[in-house]
Write a structure and sequence with these properties.
single chain, alpha/beta, two-stranded parallel ribbon, 13 helices, about 15% strand, binds nicotinamide-adenine-dinucleotide, binds 2'deoxy-thymidine-5'-diphospho-alpha-D-glucose
Length: about 350
């Protein structure tokens, strides 16, 4: 049985990946700090499965990472751990440097130094891979009509979040170029699906709508994102991990560009179907609010490389995936109640009051 050290595996995308990897017969060592967005309820399905070992801790803890490597001898490391929300990065950039930059650097060094001590003729050393999960935001913003981002697009990060992710990507690349450490990088577009922390657009709008609260749309709502179902993203990551060429980057996207206002209206339409409300249509709750600072206009990914070289294709269409996602939030009331804790309410006050 192959072992994967997954970091950030209690978050939205990481937990989807952990569930998938365990289901596919891998043993997973899951290192997660359990920040506000980490949630062990995301892993409830495998809580009694001996193939999943959860460790609460920080990727920036060199000794802990080395201990886990020595103890469990991972065949692979997949790094999801990060501060992930752009709006939070605008209010507290340093938190993003600490985890996304310094944390990733320490993780790289701890894993590399553990691997350096292995028998270089052995299978574990030779087949080892470190995959770093990153974002399309490192490429900056597109205007309508611009060609989509590819692996060759120059970095131009605009937010503290994307600057921190770009920096971590550069360190991963440097580890390959300098030490020959076997790294891979994936840059993906916006994910959606079950278990996303409701600070992000789709779950935030869904949960606000259910409470008949305003649905905050930044600016004019014309900004465009390329939506990718989280399960398609995780399958792509696993494909890159097993079949990708070390030292390479792979762009992953859903080929589903939508304006924010289209997305919000689509959520409202699904709710009108599934949970009609006597007080009126959900669209009536849409409220245009002050724009995000430095708001990137458009992201779009050209995923030709991963499709042609590795044979990956997204399986979900946006309309079907969005309807199923909204239904998931309706069907999982205990989960939604629990994540909307005091910390979440404080965040809503900080980001939306008086906006
Ligand atoms: P998330 O915020 O839901 O999860 C992040 C997880 O990392 C949480 O479980 C948190 O507890 C953990 N974590 C944070 N700091 C840590 C630390 N110092 N040590 C250990 N664990 C720590 O984020 P997500 O949306 O699941 O994103 C996961 C990764 O994918 C991130 O690297 C993000 O940049 C990248 N990404 C996200 C998207 C998206 O649309 N959500 C798209 C592309 C790439
Ligand atoms: O592109 C990949 C990135 O997608 C990931 O790297 C990030 O981790 C992830 O958070 C996401 O970033 P975005 O900033 O695009 O996602 P978010 O859900 O915060 O916002 C999506 C769009 O909706 C964006 O244009 C801002 C807008 N928005 C967001 C919120 C939270 C609103 O209009 N209102 C809102 O209340």
């Amino acid at each position: 049985m192959k072992t994967i050290l997954v970091t950030g595996g209690a978050g939205f995308i990481g937990s989807c990946y952990v569930l998938m990897a365990v289901k596919n017969g891998f043993r997973v060592i899951n290192l997660d700090k359990l920040t506000y967005s980490g949630n062990l309820e995301n892993l409830a399905e495998i809580q009694n499965d001996s193939r999943h070992i959860f460790v609460r801790g920080d990727i920036g803890n060199y000794e802990l990472v080395q201990h886990l490597c020595r103890e469990y001898l991972p065949d692979y490391v997949v790094n999801f751990a990060a501060e992930s929300h752009v709006d939070r990065s605008i209010l507290d950039p340093e938190a993003f440097v600490r985890t996304n930059v310094l944390g990733t650097c320490t993780l790289l060094r701890a894993v590399k130094e553990w691997r350096d001590g292995l028998d270089s003729a052995g299978e574990l050393y030779k087949n080892f891979r470190f995959l770093h999960v990153s974002t399309d935001e490192v490429f900056g913003a597109l205007q309508p009509g611009d060609p989509a981002f590819t692996e060759k697009t120059a970095f131009a990060p605009n937010s503290p979040y994307s600057a921190s992710k770009a920096s971590s990507d550069h360190f991963v690349r440097a580890y390959y170029e300098t030490y020959g450490f076997p790294c891979l990088i994936t840059n993906s577009s916006n994910n959606y699906g079950p278990r996303q922390f409701p600070e992000k657009l789709i779950p935030l709008v869904t949960l606000n709508a259910l409470k008949r609260k305003p649905l905050p749309v930044y600016g004019t709502g014309e900004n465009i994102r390329d939506w990718l179902h989280v399960e398609d993203h995780c399958e792509a990551i696993h494909t890159v991990l097993l079949k990708g060429s070390v030292g390479e980057t792979y762009c992953i996207g859903g080929s589903s560009e939508r304006t924010n206002i289209e997305v919000v209206r689509a959520i409202c339409a699904v709710l009108d179907e599934l949970r009609p409300h006597a007080d009126g249509k959900y669209e009536e709750l849409i409220t245009f609010v002050k724009d995000r600072l430095g708001h990137d206009f458009r992201y779009a990914i050209d995923c030709g490389k991963i499709k042609t070289q590795l044979g990956w294709e997204p399986k979900h269409t946006f309309e079907e995936g969005l309807a199923a996602t909204v239904k998931w939030y309706l069907d999982n009331e205990a989960w939604t109640q629990n994540v909307q804790s005091g910390e979440y309410r404080r965040w809503l006050e900080k980001n939306y009051t008086g906006r």
